[in-house]
Fold this protein.
Amino acid sequence: MNIFKKNYLLIISFLAILTLSLPIIMVQAQIPPPITPGSITNPLNATSFTELINDLAAWIFMIAIPLATLMFLIGGFMFMVSGGNEEKITRAKKTMLWSAVGLAICLIGAGFTYIIGEILGVE
């Protein structure tokens, strides 16, 4: 009888989960409409490889600006709370230096595709 009570609780919880997830299961089980030629749209705005690389570089650059700013602020905060400890000051200076270097690399990378395109004559 004790085994039945344990299994009964398990069966009830399984049925509750199944009942709650039944609408999701039914929606996922529907057959999608057939794909006709020309009905798939390109999710990318780029029509060439160079446009794709430029779009990726712009996306990375837009992430790098706030990230570099945040890291520079963290380095400044580390510098302020160092309390004169040379090791902490050095770590804070390195944090600020490498955030500036990372931002410079992103700036160079934004123009890098243009330079390579001009050298190779790719449009």
Summary: Residues 86-120 form the longest helix (35 residues). Residues 115 and 121 are 10 Å apart (CA to CA). Helices lie at 2-28, 49-80, 86-120. The chain is about 75% helix and 0% strand.
